[in-house]
Amino acid sequence: MADHRYGGVARRAAASLAVVLGLVALSAMAGCGGGPRAAEAEAQREYQKGRVLQEKGNMSRAGDAYNEALRLNPRLAEAYAGRAYVLYAYRNLPPALENLVAATKLDPDLALAYHYRGLVYSAMQDIDRAILNYTKAIELDPAYTEAYYNRAAAGVANQDIAAAIDDMSAVIGLEPLEPRYYMERAQLRLRDGDADGAALDLEQVLALTQQEVWVLPAKQLLANIRRGEMP
User: Fold this and answer.
1) pTM
2) Residue % of the chain over a pLDDT of 90
3) For labelling, which of 26, 147, 186, 225 has a CA lying 20 to 30 Å from the CA of 172?
4) Which of 159, 136, 160, 134 is nearest to 148 (CA)?
């Protein structure tokens, strides 16, 4: 599951970041006729534009918007996180992490940044660190569906199917009308040897949708379970 789910200058060290932030902040204030508040408002608009472009999959333009947001307000933590996601999408992982460090320094309670850091560590195959960051995102935002979903995927990578099932159950609790989540939990339950639980999930898929992409595999899995054929 993608989170909502660049180019740009990445932080090289904490000390240099502080210097750069200070210099860019002064430059932004000096160049903005409306003053700091006008620049901050415009930075928010650019950030929101970046989010929309990111969700549409236009990473290049999203990166441009995040860069502009940071030019206008170098202390906008969300824009660092957004730029990190674009870097992650292009698999530029070390600079993505650097931007996420900047984001969490500016806002230690930004759940988005920890979730994105989990994605980056997952891409680096550092699953333990990925899980730690997904967990931090969930602690900060207990309704963060994507963080639960991606922590479930990390649990599968760690061969911890029980934990993955728990996380998928949390996802379903937050989005109970999405058939895909029941299908995925059914598959996890089958891996865990719980045919009865898997059958209940597959029946729920059939109750929620008539789309063949979900109905056909759900019916096939149910038939296999009823014949005693575990995948």
Assistant:
1) 0.82
2) 81
3) 225
4) 134
